[in-house]
Amino acid sequence: xxxxxKSHATHHETRAHRSGARRGRPTWSGHLRLSLVSCPVALYGxxxxxxxxxFHLLNPETHNRIRMIPxxxxxxxxxxxxxxxxxxxxxxxxxxxxxxxxxSVRLETTKTIDIERFVDAGEIDxxxxxxxxxxxPDGRTGTEAYVVIRDALAQSRRIxxxxxxxxxxxxxxxxxxxxxxIVAWTLRSEDEVLDAKKAFEDIPAGHANKxxxxxxxxxxxxxxxxxxxxxxxxxxxxxxxxxxxxxQKGHKPVKAEPVEDTNVIDLMEALxxxxxxxxxxxxxxxxxxxxRASR
Length: 295
Hints:
Among the domains are: 15-49 and 105-192, Ku70, Chain: A, Domain 2, CATH 2.40.290; 210-222 and 233-278, no CATH class. It is built from seven helices and twelve strands. Helix content is 30%, strand content 24%. A hairpin with a 3-residue loop joins strand 3 (71-72) and strand 4 (76-77). The protein is α+β, with helices and mostly antiparallel strands. The relative contact order is 0.11.
């Protein structure tokens, strides 16, 4: 009996490792289905904010963390378990919806990502791309079907479009193969994306000076390079961590590095100076180091 339990535990650990337990609990689990082919899968967040600095609100006298207590303006505090959901249809007028009623309108997509069509990635406007998730096989069974779908996507060079319900909301998802797995991107719906033409309609029509454009293009060429996310750091977040570390050590708080800001008066002159400065820096970076004279 003990050996059987050990075997079960080993299987559980293996399954947990393969299903991405090190990434925490899945955001969603169910089945991925392509026509008659399906396999159990789970979604795990592909990004994290755990490194962000966050603060709690404290009582300045006791340094105890305060509690946010739901309060009715007429009757006072209310138990959170007694609260109900209401949708405001007019000012201070609500339609009450129960949890059972919400459950009754949930869709089949709560447990199934049903692939509906395939599109070219370039057809999806970047404004519609939302959050990325890792879509992983959930357990031993169905891995072969998962691999078939992954490889078919890779060879067809298409993006699969399906639907999923996460946090009670139905979302379109775009599935794309990556390495040995599949990345699922939630897509914003049409009513969530604002009209870009309307947003930019107050910008005056016309084109910039051709000579200025030519100089700007040369500056772009000089700054060309590979995308390296490690180059970009949140200076405010970095300053916050330094501040907290300094206060822990009892030191005087440090100040954040100033962000360079300029007020361009003569645009043409500024472009020429930028081009000249970058050219000199580029030349210096490519110059061979001088040999030291032998003693």
